[in-house]
């Protein structure tokens, strides 16, 4: 059966393939430690769960507005004001079923044959997958270890052409844990004045996971690009709500109704009781966010110390998110082959760097969204494997 050609261009997120293989090995009785999937190992805070359950008992079973219930959009705007002093109109906020939906919508909106969309490499694999799906040309923005895995404004601006329609930036970053300094973001925004038709999608899903005194710089702070800025965020990482499938975006006036129409056509609205849980997440106590952040910070230090003690491995200190991206080129292994061997032979799930882009060769991604005990056991096995 012949399908439309663009469906043949869809890639995937290999972390889910690794998760499936890890689960299959575990079902066979193997002791598998998963440092591959980007999912907090904490439960969703209880007050959030209770709010969703209460919504069900209260009869919140029907459709809502395609853009989300008004109190939740108002809460997103209020949260942005509380944390960044950012002025956001709730009418520019859209609640969607997961962060990927905003990526899909933005890339679909700008992507077509003959245009270019820029994205981070190494970066979240769905960026490139969706760009190729639309027929647009993907243009990688190099994310380099010598830059602390932050993008270079000069290098990024040098890649813009008359065909560029959208630039995707991500800080704190997946898979590298890099945080782009404010000076680089300032320079990027200043340079974009020469390219007024180029839109920007800023993926800030890890904006509350920063370490060593780093402060998040949101692109909402730059009024000169607000009329072409799409901000991506959500509840999955910050509130340990990955399975709830909840994200939100801030869209500029000129694009909001286009995104709303896609929502009406594609998913109608987001799960209603889940939205009430999301409302409780933003308006309720934030203790769990701080507690999870402190745990990730402690694990981060353990991961870096243990990785740097391994033969042929070096690891820069990640400044954000919950990933380390160690350089394994000194081991003599290719990244994906090493990741496969670690899973099959040592019982450790990791992700090979090339799954995040061409520039990912020579690296693997380690997620420290797992217990410190499991991390120590897994990296102990990895060291023994490399020493053999």
Explained architecture:
The chain has twelve helices and twelve strands. The radius of gyration is 21 Å and the shape is globular. It is of the alpha/beta class and 388 residues long. Helix content is 40%, strand content 13%. Strand 5 (164-170), helix 7 and strand 6 form a beta-alpha-beta unit. The protein has two domains: 5-43 and 287-387, Aspartate Aminotransferase, domain 1, CATH 3.90.1150.10; 62-283, Aspartate Aminotransferase, domain 2 (3-Layer(aba) Sandwich). The longest helix has 22 residues, at 287-308. The model has no long low-confidence stretch (mean pLDDT 96). Its cofactor is pyridoxal 5'-phosphate. Keywords: Aminotransferase, Pyridoxal phosphate, Transferase.
Residue windows where pLDDT falls under 50 for at least 5 positions: none
Instruction: Let me know the number of strands.
Output: 12
What is the CATH topology classification name of the largest domain? Aspartate Aminotransferase, domain 2
Q: Output the strand order for the largest sheet.
A: 2-8-7-6-5-3-4
CATH superfamily of the largest domain: Type I PLP-dependent aspartate aminotransferase-like (Major domain)
Termini gap: 48 Å
Number of helices: 12
Q: Please identify, by name, the CATH architecture of the largest domain.
A: 3-Layer(aba) Sandwich
Give helix and strand order, one letter per element, not per position: HEHHEHEHEHEHEEEHHHEHEEEH
Shape: globular
Tally of separate domains: 2
Radius of gyration: 21 Å
Judged by helices, strands and strand pairing, the structural class is alpha/beta
Strand percentage lies at 5-15%
Mean pLDDT: 96
Helix content: 25-40%
The major β-sheet equals:
7 strands, mixed
> In CATH, what is the class of the largest domain?
Alpha Beta
């Amino acid at each position: 059966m012949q399908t439309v050609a663009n469906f043949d261009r869809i890639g995937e997120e290999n972390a889910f393939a690794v998760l499936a293989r890890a689960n299959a090995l575990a079902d066979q009785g193997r002791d598998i430690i998963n440092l591959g999937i980007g999912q907090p190992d904490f439960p969703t805070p209880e007050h959030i769960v209770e709010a969703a359950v209460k919504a069900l008992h209260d009869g919140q079973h029907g459709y809502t507005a395609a853009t989300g219930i008004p109190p939740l959009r108002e809460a997103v705007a209020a949260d942005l004001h509380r944390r960044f002093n950012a002025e956001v109109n709730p009418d520019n906020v859209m609640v969607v079923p997961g962060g990927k939906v905003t990526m899909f919508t933005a890339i679909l909106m700008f992507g077509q044959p003959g245009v270019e969309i820029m994205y981070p490499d190494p970066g979240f694999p769905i960026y490139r997958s969706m760009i190729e799906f639309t027929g647009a040309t993907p243009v990688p923005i190099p994310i380099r270890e010598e830059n602390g895995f932050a993008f270079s404004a000069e290098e990024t601006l040098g890649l813009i052409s008359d065909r560029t329609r959208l630039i995707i930036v991500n800080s704190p970053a997946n898979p590298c844990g890099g945080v782009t300094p404010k000076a680089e973001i300032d320079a990027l925004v200043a340079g974009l004045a020469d390219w007024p038709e180029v839109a920007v999608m800023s993926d800030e899903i890890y904006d509350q996971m920063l370490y060593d005194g780093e402060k998040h710089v949101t692109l909402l702070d730059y009024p000169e690009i607000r009329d072409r800025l799409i901000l991506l965020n959500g509840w999955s990482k910050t509130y340990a709500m990955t399975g709830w499938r909840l994200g939100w975006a801030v869209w500029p006036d000129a694009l909001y109704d286009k995104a709303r129409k896609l929502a009406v056509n594609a998913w109608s609205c987001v799960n209603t009781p889940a939205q009430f849980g999301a409302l409780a997440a933003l308006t309720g106590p934030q203790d769990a966010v701080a507690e999870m952040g402190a745990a990730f910070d402690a694990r981060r230090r353990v991961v870096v110390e243990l990785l740097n003690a391994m033969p042929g491995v070096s690891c820069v200190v990640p400044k954000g998110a919950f990933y380390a991206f160690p350089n394994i080129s000194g081991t003599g292994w290719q990244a994906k082959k090493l990741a496969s061997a670690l899973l099959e032979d040592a019982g450790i799930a990791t992700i090979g760097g090339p799954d995040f882009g061409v520039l990912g060769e020579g690296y693997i991604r380690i997620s420290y969204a797992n217990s410190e005990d499991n991390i120590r056991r897994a990296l102990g096995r990895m060291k023994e494997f490399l020493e053999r």
